[in-house]
Amino acid sequence: MLVPVLIAFVILLKSEHHLALRNPLSETQRLFTSNWWTSDGDTIGRRDRRRQLGSAMVPDPDAPLEVQVEVSVEHPRRRFRKRWIPASFVRFLWFCSALFIGLMCFVLGEAYAEVYLRTLPHANIETVVYVYSWVATVYLLDGITGWMLGGGEGERVGSYPLGWIFKLYFQLTYQTYVRALYARLRSPSQFAILQLLSSSFLIIITPLSMTRFVHRLFVLVGLNGQEYSEYKKFVGRSFFLRGIAENVSMLAFLGEVVALHFGSNKDAYPYFSFSDPDNPYTFELTFYASTITWACEIAAGWVVRRIMDWAFQFHVTAEGTADLTSWPELVPTSL
């Protein structure tokens, strides 16, 4: 997944394009950028470049008298060229760092799952510790990546659509590995405990995080510099993307369980075969408990939407739809 970025990085360094002035971006190249991105001082238009070249070709009768002056000016320019790095290249480096953290989150998810499966069976408290240590890891990496990408002009990358996509990616990664855990829960009580904690945190923490008090607290400690209206939209966007990730990941998980359990290639996937009658992990428990969990998640999401609508006059679905309308490229990118 990193190969295209590595190739672009090598080409930039080898040809020193990152030290050169660039032409204005086309409409296609402006996808997932802000106006600030396309209005930097490191860009020179073709018309201005032709004008400079044309003026340089006009003969000057006094040119021999200025040879020494030109030579003396050229050396500082060369030294400046070696030090100068365009803002667009700096943003490219920030984007590469964000992409690396996103892939590292995926690798950590694989490591978490491997550790959990190698230490079966687990008690309820061990399952809770596993899940919420994974949740804390994902949200930490998501926060770092969100800071790198920014959401407004003048920030590191400064691309709201890119922040939108990366937020969805982290939510999907978080939910995917939690769903895979469901196939190794031994009793309905483990499903119930996890869902009770998840729904309670969602209904309580999400509305609290949208309050002015929490916003002022984040501003005071330097974790957020947004206006309250922007911060409120940021929290609502995160909840909107969480809902998408929950529904998509659960639907994919249930389909995967059914296809691999009843499919002809189930012998190749013993994790979902549930063929051992003495094994406490059964298809019926996994499928029906996961379906009930999905229904509880939908109900908890509905409650949070009503709270946001009533207490903060924030319409989650309307704001999410407005984002997709403003940036239609988000739809194919999300898929």
Automatic annotation (TrEMBL):
InterPro entries: C553.12c (IPR039966). The chain crosses the membrane at residues 92-117, 129-149, 191-210, 239-262, 285-304. The keyword Ion transport does not apply. It comes from the Eukaryota. The keyword Iron does not apply. Residues 1-20 form the signal peptide. Keywords: Membrane, Signal, Transmembrane, Transmembrane helix. This is Uncharacterized protein. It comes from Trichoglossum hirsutum.
